[in-house]
Amino acid sequence: MLRVEGVTVRFGPKLALDDVTLEVADGEVVTVLGPSGSGKSTLLRVISGLQPPDAGRVVLDGRDLARVPPHRRGIGLVFQDHALFHHRDVRGNVAFGLRMRGDSPRDIAGRVHDVLDLVGLAGYEHRSIATLSGGEQQRVALARALAPAPRVLLLDEPLGSLDRRLRDRLLEELDGIFDTLRVTALYVTHDRSEAFALGDRVAIVREGRVVQAGTADELWARPVDEDVARFLGLANVRAGEVVRPEAVRLTARDDARGGNGVVESVARQGPTVRVVVRLDDGSELEAAVASLDHPRPGERVEVEIDPAGVSGFADNAGS
Amino acid sequence: MDAHRAPLTSRGWRALGYGVPLAFLALFFAFPLATILERSLTSSPLDVLSDPVTRGVVWFTVWQAVASTLITLAVAMPAAYVLGRFAFPGRGLVRALVVVPFVLPTIVVALAFLAILPDGIERGWAPILVAHAFFNVAVVVRVVGTFWAGLDPRASEAAATLGASPWRRLREVTLPLLAPSLAAAAAVVFLFSFTSFGIVLVLGGPGYSTIEAEVYNQAVRAFDLQAAAVLSLVQLLCVGATVWVTLRLEARLAVSGYLRSEEDVLRRPRGAREWAVVGGSLGGLGLFLGLPLAVLVERSLAVGDGHGFEAYRALARPTAALLATPWEAIANSLLYAAAAAAIAVLVGGLAAFAVASPRGSPVLDVLLMLPLGTSAVMLGFGFVIAFDDWPLDFRSEPWIVPVAQALVALPFVVRIVAPTLRAIDVRQREAAALLGASPGRVWREVDLPVAGRALAVGAGFAFAISLGEFGATVFLARPDNPTLPVAIFRFLGRPGELNAGMAYALAVVLMVVTAASVFLVERIHGRLGGGLV
Question: Residues B501, B310: contact at Cβ < 8 Å?
């Protein structure tokens, strides 16, 4: 089990990490979700030993890692933009960690073959890094980190530089690989869908602090504050409560004075249509409408809210 | 349509841009070289080549250059590492100071080591190697250090997370990635050491001579012009071969990797150990570079058992070593250097505009770099044998000295000005044209202001290079019109404490003037956003 306890990192006057505490159980995948510059990468650098913390400690299987240098930690890291060794071919990259721990050439060849097979790059051993596409480089970076079978795998926005379609495909493959190998992993991303697709649990980070951690359902049901709610895509915050867009019902009104709001904008987002309504009290409300027969901009509508779709904030729950 | 094709728009301007530099190179570079070639082939060049003395000289030239390169790398790498990995207060100052020995005239460097080394061991192969390391450290520190500072540290960090110890990370990741810059720096150091003249002439004593110094010995002391010509040719071939090998090596070593900006790479040292590494590396280098110069100043002030300005006062008086007073030599040097700078900026500036224009030919660019590959001694020797006959009987003309110095400085001027002009966004010219500027006006409003600064920097460099220029000048400066380096050399050939003192004093004067002009250049250059190496 990996435990991060009260880790703080300062860069000059700026607090990159502020008293961060986090746990990853064996075989668990935890994703860290936060905007860029929120300290996510620094967290991974502290865990892997590349950045000494100013306070706090990292404990792996009950052992404090403070005095263990990065190359003896047995923690793998997949870097943002891969950081592959451009002076070696694919095989040289994947074999690197195996050579460092002194495996025999035969074992190395076998393991490199197996890992490349796992990431879908069988037969790529002698390709040079420069000839690989972005997606292939990403797979090599993953294979390189996986090859020595690290105790914990850290991934720093590994899909950040790839286009949408490739990302979705690799996301599925990653999920499969994590399941197959029962990897203990901490995965950093700024992308909501990635975080919820991969993580058994999601930790939301803001300005160097973990503001909330839990399963996807827990976060979705009770975000800790308005910022988290908006970050999760829950735009309707009214009087200290979160109103889910699918709980907002709209009924079209033919006359100019009926209803209690007017449609501001309509935009299709996949299977549902996002309708923004300006209420007569001046506030805005977002509705997700599944029907093709949705109201049009300028139309007056009657707005009703299903109480089942309204919840308070997690930190307000007790008060 | 033609507007963005400035800077040289009219046909006349382009003719000038190509014509002047090409004519200059043809007359003062190609012609003397051709004369050397012709002279070396008149009788059998094999006689010279089979001479055991020649073979000894070639062998010494090669091995001392290899040894000098290795020593320079060993001395410079700790500082290159520190500058390539750490941000600390005074980092910019260190980067600037480390260049000082490199811009000093080689004769000053030679004198500094003559001053610091105890009697008895101040001449021979060992002082030559150490002086070469002193002179060339800047090349390695700046080239490798700058490359290192742009090298993504995550490659090494990735190796760490894969279980590589610091030593293995250096060997298996960092050094292979640094290889292109190491090869480039080593090649430059090798070439400078291979063609070393002033240092070898002063510190080599009778037994040790590079090809470059031997050309001078054969031409001036033994009057064997054919031997000098053959040796020049051997030198040219060796330099050409080295450059060719280097270019191939660099192409093979080049690693396509992503480089990053220094701000992302450099970090403050952490903990006492890293601070000790930073302090130790830079302190050691500072001592190595500072001590010889300090002792040089001390020796210039030595009078008997005490200190005084005796040697400096003597500079105003006539001396048996020269047909002029040393002060006149200083005045000559300043005058010649100013004239050389003017010629280099005129010819180099025109060439830079021609080369940098979008229709510029790469051929001229390459031609302009050629004087870099030939040695100064060879140029001086070529001038002497080429310009000795009517109608080209120039070799005793006073203006031939700045012409030769300008030729040495020319490639640097082009290298400084042309990239600046190329860096001007074409759209700036297009925007100016769309706002109503005529082609000539575009050139005046967009190109010239940018080029002005670069030309000033080029002039400063040409001035500094010409001040210390020794290899060509020693052939061409007349006895009644010596330059500073030539005067220093003459004083060294004379016995007596005062002559030695005056040599040291003149070296200090040369050092101060050179350092001052380079400092001025750095000020302008810094505002241009460039670095020295």
Answer: yes
